[in-house]
């Protein structure tokens, strides 16, 4: 029997599936042929099958390195149900229990052995590995090995060395859902993959309609309420940035949605019995969280308002919409959360609500977010730069006027054919649809505004005497973006006047321009590298790498605004 036929047979026998999904068969065949692989596939695409099927066909044991102890038991139970002998070793077991599992594996009674990366450092495990034939090492969440990845884990750095020390080198298969070019290169180098077959698949989900809406913070809750009220039979997830917000929004939805439904004449006897929305976050008791999850999964409550704690391991295929009440900090996070819509393949909508203050908040959080005590100062700095880069890409998603499907798949490193993409007409790739492909945009010339902002960033670094002359060399470090806008708009606010900023030559220069426009332009200039936000104790506006362009005689600067969006229902054409 060929490897391919054997693999298909195992897929059918153990999992009951008739065919491989895109990408799976190539990876399975390579592993069976003894070649290392790197599989980059989104969550839910079916990475596990890619190493589980070869593990059933190869002699000896396959070791699966996975960072999440909590998911090991689920995986092992599911494999046992399918008739595949699997086990895990982790800190929840006594040393005796661990010894028993290792003995079984050595005797060939375990085909897949799940361990956390830290385990590889223990002497006991090294002894085991030295005397047990290991055919395959599968590394799940392989991006954790990269300092450029979102979730760097220093314990992953030991994997390459562990493999190199084995008496016989097994096939090594690495999997991840996140891999930009740089992370991919790191995975190959750090794990010591040999001429690996790299497969990147399926980041575009053509049943999802992507929608980006810029909305003031105070209008967001009303937008969400009205969306939910007009989709009464659908189930949805609303992601918020903080625990407090989830509770406040769930409570407000439970009042307003019913009012809106009554106003539109919907009969709601049945709905009055159950709330419309339930909050979910990591600060709730496990019982309350389980209850919320059950209510949502069983359709008793149609909407869950959650932090990013919600989702991992929750299997609900008919989620019709995912609304982000705030901008997440990376495309990876957004894609993973939004991707919980439409798992059943039916048309679903992913809406991101954002505004400039989301950006300010996210930038501020970057500075305070030191989450890994094991990192050296240098690693922390790399981590910070990396997070900033990811945040900029997320901001780019909010601002782009290009096809949102294309933006996202390109970000994940898939090549997308270029398409002239006239505005108001869909990009050929945009099968599920997106706001940008359904919109026409107005272009506004904001060259003068941009110049004035740039000048002001310079001006506020000096002090001025009563005649408006700079008194000395640069005095200040500069100001935050809110202050820059206030100065340009000629604000009479106490802190502006008290600091003598009304004597600065830029004061009041944009008094006639709406405040929101000044903010928008300033923010876009930061994204474009004309300005930069220097993150110290307080975020301060400084000059970016392209700053000199603003004083060039031919400088021209535009912003785009959606002029009209054709309303179109979600889904495939
Ligand atoms: P990932 O690890 O990429 O997040 P999983 O391996 O957990 O994804 O697979 C997601 C779901 O898809 C699982 O329910 C799995 O059984 C199912 N699946 C995987 N491969 C196939 C296939 N070839 N045909 C049908 N369903 C599949």
UniProtKB/TrEMBL annotation:
This is ATP-dependent DNA helicase RecQ. One of its GO terms (biological process) is DNA recombination. The keyword Magnesium does not apply. One of its GO terms (molecular function) is metal ion binding. Belongs to the helicase family. RecQ subfamily. Residues 207-386 form the Helicase C-terminal domain. Keywords: ATP-binding, DNA damage, DNA repair, DNA-binding, Helicase, Hydrolase, Isomerase, Metal-binding, Nucleotide-binding. It catalyses: Couples ATP hydrolysis with the unwinding of duplex DNA by translocating in the 3'-5' direction. Its cofactor is Zn(2+); Mg(2+). One of its GO terms (cellular component) is cytoplasm. Residues 28-197 form the Helicase ATP-binding domain. Its EC number is 5.6.2.4.
């Amino acid at each position: 029997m060929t490897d391919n036929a054997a693999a298909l047979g195992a897929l059918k026998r153990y999992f009951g599936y008739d065919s491989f999904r895109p990408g799976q068969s190539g990876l399975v065949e390579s592993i069976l042929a003894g070649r290392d692989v790197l599989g980059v596939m989104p969550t839910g695409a079916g990475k596990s099958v890619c190493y589980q099927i070869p593990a059933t066909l190869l002699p000896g044991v396959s070791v699966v390195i996975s960072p999440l102890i909590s998911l090991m038991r689920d995986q092992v139970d599911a494999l046992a149900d399918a008739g595949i002998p699997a086990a895990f070793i982790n800190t929840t077991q006594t040393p005796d229990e661990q010894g028993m599992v290792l003995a079984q594996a050595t005797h060939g009674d375990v085909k897949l052995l799940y361990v956390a990366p830290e385990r590889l450092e223990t002497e006991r495990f090294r002894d085991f590995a030295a005397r047990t034939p290991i055919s395959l090492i599968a590394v799940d969440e392989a991006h954790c090995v990269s300092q450029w990845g979102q979730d760097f884990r220093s314990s992953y750095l030991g994997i390459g060395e562990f493999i190199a020390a084995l008496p016989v080198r097994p096939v090594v298969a690495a999997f991840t859902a996140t891999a930009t070019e740089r992370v991919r290169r790191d995975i190959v180098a750090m794990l010591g993959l040999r001429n690996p077959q790299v497969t990147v698949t399926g980041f575009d989900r053509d049943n999802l309609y992507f929608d980006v809406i810029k909305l003031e913070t105070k209008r967001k809750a009303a937008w969400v309420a009205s969306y939910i009220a007009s989709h009464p039979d659908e189930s949805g997830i609303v992601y918020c940035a903080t625990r407090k917000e989830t509770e406040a929004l769930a409570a407000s939805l439970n009042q307003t949605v019913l009012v809106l439904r009554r106003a539109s004449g919907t009969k709601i006897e049945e709905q009055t019995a159950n709330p419309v929305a339930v909050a979910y976050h990591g600060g709730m008791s496990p019982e309350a969280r389980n209850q919320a999850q059950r209510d949502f999964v069983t359709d008793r409550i149609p909407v869950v308002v959650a932090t990013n704690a919600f989702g991992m391991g929750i299997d609900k295929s008919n989620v019709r919409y995912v609304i982000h009440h705030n901008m997440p900090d990376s495309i990876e996070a957004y894609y993973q959360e939004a991707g919980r819509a439409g798992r059943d393949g039916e048309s679903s909508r992913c809406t991101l609500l954002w505004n400039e203050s989301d950006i300010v908040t996210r930038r501020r959080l970057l500075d305070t977010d030191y989450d890994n005590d094991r990192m050296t100062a240098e690693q922390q700095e790399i981590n910070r730069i990396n997070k900033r880069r990811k945040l900029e890409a997320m901001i780019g998603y909010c601002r782009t006027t290009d096809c949102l499907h294309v933006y996202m798949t390109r970000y994940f490193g898939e090549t997308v054919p270029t398409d002239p993409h006239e505005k108001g007409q869909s990009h050929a790739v945009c099968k599920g649809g997106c706001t940008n492909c359904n919109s026409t945009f107005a272009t506004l010339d904001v060259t003068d505004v941009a110049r004035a902002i740039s000048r002001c960033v310079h001006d506020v670094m000096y002090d001025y005497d009563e005649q408006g002359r700079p008194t000395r060399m640069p005095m200040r470090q500069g100001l935050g973006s809110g202050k820059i806008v206030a100065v340009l708009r000629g604000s009479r606010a106490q802190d502006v006047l008290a600091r003598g900023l009304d004597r600065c030559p830029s004061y009041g220069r944009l008094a006639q321009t709406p405040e929101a426009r000044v903010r928008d332009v300033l923010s876009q200039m930061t994204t474009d590298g004309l300005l930069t936000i220097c993150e110290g104790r307080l975020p301060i506006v400084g000059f970016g790498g392209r700053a000199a362009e603003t004083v060039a005689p031919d400088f021209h600067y535009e912003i785009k605004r959606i002029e009209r969006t054709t309303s179109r229902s979600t889904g495939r054409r």
